Amino acid sequence: MIVDLVVSLLLLASGILVLTAAAGLWRLQDFFLRLHAAALPNTLASWAVALASAIHLTAGTGRLALHHWVIVILLSITAPITTMLVARAALFRWRAHSADGTKPK
């Protein structure tokens, strides 16, 4: 019962973090602010889900289940790179539009 409580609390925390990221995306006006509003809560939410999954499977099978961490580690490595590439593309687009006097969308 304690394991189920811990797993449910981690999943609930993950849901709250994702809702926080969604609220940041909804409330912020600028693309660059929106980009950062979703990055950290979504990463923390994925860590919470992976931890909940590892705890649940370890308690259920009796063996240490750590293969879910591969997904989270790859996500943690690739998410900042993706964020940086999207930000650079948006900055390039913003600079190109400001050079010719039009407003970027």
Automatic annotation (TrEMBL):
Q: Looking at the Swiss-Prot or TrEMBL record, what is one Pfam family this protein matches?
A: PhaG_MnhG_YufB
Q: Where are the transmembrane segments?
A: 6-26, 38-59, 65-87
Swiss-Prot/TrEMBL keywords: Membrane, Transmembrane, Transmembrane helix
Q: GO terms for molecular function, please?
A: sodium:proton antiporter activity
State the InterPro entries in the record.
PhaG_MnhG_YufB (IPR005133)
Q: Which domain of life does the protein's organism represent?
A: Bacteria
Its name, as the record gives it, is Monovalent cation/H(+) antiporter subunit G
